[in-house]
Amino acid sequence: MTDRAAQPATIEACPNGPLLVRGDVQLVDGDGTPLERRRRTVALCRCGASAIAPFCDGSHKAIRFVAP
Ligand code: FES
């Protein structure tokens, strides 16, 4: 990762959309296996409809997800 990856992690909940994760954080699956991170900002699905979970694929728009 680049210099930006060394920044403190932030998590931003998009209105009716994914969680945007930025900064120095390692993502792992349910077994603790690291997930490949290809971008500085990672969008994690919170609607449950993504075909590429745990990442957001934009499906929240199609299902008109409304965040609690
Ligand atoms: S939040 Fe985007 S697909 Fe679920």
TrEMBL record:
Q: Which Pfam families match?
A: zf-CDGSH
Residues annotated as coiled-coil are none
Q: Does the keyword Disulfide bond apply?
A: no
Q: This protein is called what?
A: CDGSH iron-sulfur domain-containing protein
UniProt KW keywords: 2Fe-2S, Iron, Iron-sulfur, Metal-binding
Gene3D superfamilies per the record? Answer: CDGSH iron-sulfur domain, mitoNEET-type
Q: Can you give the residue ranges of the Iron-binding zinc finger CDGSH type domain?
A: 26-66
Answer whether the UniProt record assigns the keyword Metal-binding to this protein: yes
